[in-house]
Amino acid sequence: MARAGIGLVLLAVVWTFQACGHSPLSDSRGVVRTIRISDVVKPTTVYARSGEEIRWENLRATPVRIGFLSVRLLEELGCKKGVSSFFGDIGDVITIAPGETASLCPIRSGTLQFNVWFDADNPKSEISPTATIHVEKTGG
Questions:
Q1: Could you state, in order of their start, the residue ranges of all structural domains in the chain?
Q2: Most buried of 9, 34, 44, 79 (most Cβ within 10 A)?
Q3: Where are the beta strands (DSSP E) in the chain?
Q4: Which PROSITE patterns match (predicted)?
Q5: Chain centroid offset of residue 55 CA
Q6: How far apart are CA 51 and CA 23, in angstroms?
Q7: Total-model pTM
Q8: What is the CATH number of domain 2-136?
Q9: Per-residue confidence at 90, pLDDT binned at 50, 70, 90?
Q10: What's the CA gap between 36 and 33, in Å, rounded?
């Protein structure tokens, strides 16, 4: 009985590290498209290829919340950091702490739109204009 309990604890630890891990695809060639969040979101339009890392960087002194308007591209990712729950699920809203980053590597081609709430604790706070990430399929 004790061995089964230890095994379950070890399995939970492994799942935790997998959910929080950041392992980019080998074909992404280390390309990172960074979106910086300060008083504004820059850039508001990003062009990337499948497998490339899209990274949001919170330059503010307070947490921000990102709301994804379309989640199709989030269904299949090559990497993810700070965008998934304990169980590995990705919701349509994530929070980024001050000075932290969150990132993902879409595998599918398509468009991902999002807004940023500059005050993560207040859903009625100032919101950014809708920003867009265009992902193009790599190779043939």
A1: 2-136
A2: 79
A3: 32-37, 41-42, 45-49, 53-58, 64-68, 77-81, 93-96, 101-106, 110-117, 131-136
A4: PROKAR_LIPOPROTEIN
A5: 7
A6: 11
A7: 0.76
A8: 2.60.40.420
A9: confident
A10: 10
User: What single-letter DSSP state applies at residue 72?
Assistant: G
The label of the residue with tokens 């709430």 reads: 117
Fill in the DSSP letter of residue 28: G
Asked whether the beta carbons of 98 and 77 are under 8 A apart, the reply is no
Q: Give the Cα separation of 73 and 42 in Å (integer).
A: 21
pLDDT at 9: 44
| Identity at 130, one-letter amino acid code | T
**pLDDT at 139 exceeding the cut of 80:** no
Tokens of 55: 């990274």
Write down the pLDDT at residue 88: 72
Cα(63)–Cα(98) distance, integer angstroms: 5
Tokens of 37: 């969040």
**At 136, which amino acid appears?**
E
Q: Which two tokens stand for residue 9?
A: 């604890």
Query: Beta partners for 54?
Result: 33, 104
